[in-house]
Amino acid sequence: MAAVAEPAKVARAPGQGSNGAAAALSGGDQNRAVGFGNETINDFLDRQPAATLRNLYNRPSNTLAVFRLLPPMARQLVMHLLFLDAPLALDQYLVWIKRGEGKRQHEEGLRRLERLHIIILQASKLTLSAVFRDSLRTALMGGGEHRSFGVPSEQGTEDRTVDVAMLDEYARNKWESILHFMVGSEGAPSPGEAVLYLLRRSDLMQRVEDSNRLGITSRGFQFLLEDVNTQLWDILLQYLSLSNQRRMDIVDILSFLFMLGSLTLGQSYSAEDLPESQLHCLQDFADYGLVYQTSPKHFYPTRLATTLTNHDAQPLRGGSGSDEEQGFIVLETNYRLYAYTSNPLRIAVLQLFTHIKARFSNLVLGSLTRDSIKAALAKGISAEQVIAYLSHHAHPQMIARNDPLLPITVTDQVRLWEREKNRVAAEEGYLYMDFSSAEDFKLVRDYAKSLSVLLWQEERSRRFFVEARGQEPVRDFIRRRLA
């Protein structure tokens, strides 16, 4: 008999190859493999073709937003060239630069400006793009009828209660309602379909097995560690990536975002002159708390919008980002956790990996247990992410007194619980055995290996195990070659 294949299961460590060696990707490679990373708006702009960027620079508000996003050395070079009537010789530019760190920063800034087609380096001379130069001059000096910084409108009678405090509260509630839904807070309303689609597309949430319910992913938990501005850009970059699918001009979407970033908080703006694509954006962005509308004819930008490109502006405070709660967790060597917070979102995040025992007006008592960590691991949250969250939100007293910051006994145990979960995984497939010769065994085994379906082998007993998907091609190969 050439060989016998029997349905079976094999237990192996996840990520191991057919010879038992670990085949896991590094952290960075894992991110690339599953298609997400930490792309920023700067990375997104760097990837745009020259024609798209030139169209973008036609509007003064866009050039000002891009200028604000540049690194300091790049901004300095742009300002040096902005009012020069002739190109700047490269050797003259190099005279300004000191050796060492300063030189490296200038070189990085120059490369960034070239990628964005803001500066042209030709014949050893630096020239500022004419369209960028003219638009930035207009943005800084005023003039023109471009209306790229929005058209202010007067408050209507229905807007008497609209002020900065009200807009902050509205934006906070809108954004935190999405975060509450992500962490599964009890009673959290489901966002609109458009928001849910972006959460899934961003890999922040995915459908739970054997259920129509959405659950947070490992990427989603990492998302919770970011500041609000970074979180917003994560979502908005996914929104931008859908422009072709929705047949929307990406320049129109970027222009609207950059315009929002330049508006005045508390001021009402007209929506009547916006193109149709930007009106769609206006409706969509209201779901995230970027804008507030009391009438289809005008809108108010919230602090979430006005800080999109201006990092020096005062960010949205209160809720999960309040100053007094940046460090609110105390963790003891006996696994007990004390969280000095009354914020529902903070508590909901803790419940993802903590067994909550008691809640008071400004204090939550809990502990890290095997079951609570296993529940987090089942959602795709890693041990390192739990440790990172506890470190990021450690109470100032822990920072002042503890070295290392978190008790080693606790962090080691959390990692051990993760390894315990990953120790063994069952794989369905087929066991091949009873080969008549060692040559036949090696021939079929090598074929299975070439298909990447070989999970286990034992040459001494002439047996190997293949994944279920490899059964048919391996069986057909045996029939052709060994029958």
UniProtKB/TrEMBL annotation:
<dbReference type="GO" id="GO:0006289">
    <property type="term" value="P:nucleotide-excision repair"/>
</dbReference>
<dbReference type="GO" id="GO:0005675">
    <property type="term" value="C:transcription factor TFIIH holo complex"/>
</dbReference>
<keyword id="KW-0805">Transcription regulation</keyword>
<protein>
    <recommendedName>
        <fullName>RNA polymerase II transcription factor B subunit 2</fullName>
    </recommendedName>
</protein>
<dbReference type="InterPro" id="IPR004598">
    <property type="entry name" value="TFIIH_p52/Tfb2"/>
</dbReference>
<dbReference type="GO" id="GO:0001671">
    <property type="term" value="F:ATPase activator activity"/>
</dbReference>
<dbReference type="GO" id="GO:0000439">
    <property type="term" value="C:transcription factor TFIIH core complex"/>
</dbReference>
<comment type="similarity">
    <text>Belongs to the TFB2 family.</text>
</comment>
<comment type="function">
    <text>Component of the general transcription and DNA repair factor IIH (TFIIH) core complex, which is involved in general and transcription-coupled nucleotide excision repair (NER) of damaged DNA and, when complexed to TFIIK, in RNA transcription by RNA polymerase II. In NER, TFIIH acts by opening DNA around the lesion to allow the excision of the damaged oligonucleotide and its replacement by a new DNA fragment. In transcription, TFIIH has an essential role in transcription initiation.</text>
</comment>
<comment type="function">
    <text>Component of the general transcription and DNA repair factor IIH (TFIIH) core complex which is involved in general and transcription-coupled nucleotide excision repair (NER) of damaged DNA.</text>
</comment>
<dbReference type="GO" id="GO:0003690">
    <property type="term" value="F:double-stranded DNA binding"/>
</dbReference>
<dbReference type="GO" id="GO:0006366">
    <property type="term" value="P:transcription by RNA polymerase II"/>
</dbReference>
<dbReference type="Pfam" id="PF18307">
    <property type="entry name" value="Tfb2_C"/>
</dbReference>
<keyword id="KW-0539">Nucleus</keyword>
<feature type="region of interest" description="Disordered">
    <location>
        <begin position="1"/>
        <end position="24"/>
    </location>
</feature>
<keyword id="KW-0234">DNA repair</keyword>
<feature type="domain" description="Transcription factor Tfb2 C-terminal">
    <location>
        <begin position="412"/>
        <end position="479"/>
    </location>
</feature>
<keyword id="KW-0804">Transcription</keyword>
<keyword id="KW-0227">DNA damage</keyword>
<dbReference type="InterPro" id="IPR040662">
    <property type="entry name" value="Tfb2_C"/>
</dbReference>
<dbReference type="Pfam" id="PF03849">
    <property type="entry name" value="Tfb2"/>
</dbReference>
